[in-house]
TrEMBL record:
Cellular component GO terms held in the UniProt record: plasma membrane
Presence of the UniProt keyword Disulfide bond in the record: no
Major localization listed first in the record, in broad terms: membrane
Keywords, sorted A to Z: Cell membrane, Membrane, Transmembrane, Transmembrane helix, Transport
Membrane topology field: Multi-pass membrane protein
Any single biological process term in GO: transmembrane transport
Lineage summary: Bacteria, Bacillati, Actinomycetota, Actinomycetes, Micrococcales
Species, as recorded: Microbacterium faecale
PROSITE patterns: ABC_TM1 (PS50928)
Transmembrane segments: 67-89, 101-121, 127-149, 170-188, 194-214, 226-243
Compartment(s) where it occurs, according to its Swiss-Prot or TrEMBL record: Cell membrane
The name this protein goes by in its record: Sulfonate ABC transporter
Family affiliation: Belongs to the binding-protein-dependent transport system permease family.
Domain annotation ABC transmembrane type-1: ranges: 63-247
Amino acid sequence: MTSIARFLRERWALVVGPLALLAVWELLSRTGVIPETFFPEPTRIIAGITIIADAETGLGIDLMMTVFRLIVTVVLAVLIGVGIGIAITASQWTERGISTVLAFVYPIPGVLFFPFLTFILGRTETAVLLTALVTPLIVMILYTVAGVNSISKTLIEVADNYDCRGARRFFRILVPGALPSIVTGIRISLGFGLIAVIAIEMVGAPSGLGNFLWENWQILRVTDMYVALLCIAVLGLLTTVGFDGVAGRILPWQADAGSTS
């Protein structure tokens, strides 16, 4: 079996749901059940994808800005979150204290931090990135702490007996032991990161898919608005599928378990 055939066999279910939804939408719009003005046919929206390469609309640049912000946000969340998550597990006092703070901040939508950050940084790209970083960072810290706490106590005692400390303990015991939970945290952070980036682009960024969607909604350029929405959906799908492929290489035993279950 070729690699393409194997890929289609494993991934066909991913496209069935979206295709069925688009088919129903197309039928309802063409028959006038839903107003075409606000819900144009999906085929017309797909035909409008060419605006991605249109220099005047600038959707291509907005798409690249959103991807750039998402990558920066998730990379910072992983690097900082894993470091903080492992560091606070060094003491029960720090773990309980910081976990309480995180539980207090976590329910607050990340976009609400933007006004406070603008007091300090102004409406800058740094304020946009830091606002988008809040929720993915908290997710990474919580999942890293859970991963470290799931490491076998026997393994920790063996490391203590062999005086495995510092960087050796970090890279050879804690990070590998917490890796399954960290990978799950990254997957969830990607979703939260995309939501946060789009939300902050809608209210505070001068560019990006969220900004493009919001501006076209205000002037009722509906088709272009749906093209931006389609780009966001495809970006989210590619992010999830792409990371699942990477996670399967990082944790091959989990991929094997999933394929045999």
